[in-house]
Amino acid sequence: MASTIVSETIAGLPKQLAPTDDQWSTTVEQCKLPKTVREIALKELREDENTREQCLLAFRQWILKNPDIQNVDIESTFLLRFLRTKKFSLPMAQQLLLKYLNLRQKYPMYFTNLDCLNPAVNDLIDAGYMFVSPFRDNHGRRVIIGSAKGFDLQKFTSKDLGLTHMVTYETLLNDEVNQVMGFTHIGDLASISPAYITLFTPNEFATLIKWGEVTFTYITCLLL
Q1: pLDDT digits over 115-135, tens only?
Q2: Which superfamily does 113-223 belong to?
Q3: Is residue 209 scored above 90 in pLDDT?
Q4: Could you confirm whether domain 35-108 is CATH 1.10.3470?
Q5: What is the DSSP letter of 175?
Q6: I want to staple 181 with a disulfide (CB 3.0 to 4.6 A). Which of 54, 130, 140, 189 is the partner?
């Protein structure tokens, strides 16, 4: 059976135009984290300059040599999302990346054309369905607040819901401080009803929950 080809974007360039192994091996990337966050990353994630550089180099080489992965972003900020989640265990980060890419490929409607100016996404944010607090919690985590009553079942679709979540998470995960400190997700589900389940097929719902938990392991949930 032929293997599945996973294709994403690599800084807007085809994979064959990406930097070579030799080019990456001579690239020294400065850590973008503030000193206090670097100290937390060292203590909690085992991240230091040498570990970060060696893992990034090995991760890129693995991606560029893997025939089943095409056109994937190999910039440090993107790859560090997976390395930091798995405390710089390269094999575990590689598996997490594959699951993430497979989720994007299986449900492209939730991952393409991510734009907060999309009318439906903008309306959901304005309605308070999901928004990000300007303040962090006592542990330095970014706080994401959501309220089910902001989602009108007569107006919005599962695609609108998915895009709103992905716009939020993908934007926040581009901030390396958030990658280290993580998130607290506060959700008001008081108005939720069984009707919300009809937004997805049973298979879609089960898959999104299972893969979403694995892929977005940065989030601490506090359900009210």
Answers
A1: 989 999 999 999 999 999 999
A2: CRAL-TRIO lipid binding domain (3.40.525.10)
A3: no
A4: no
A5: S
A6: 140
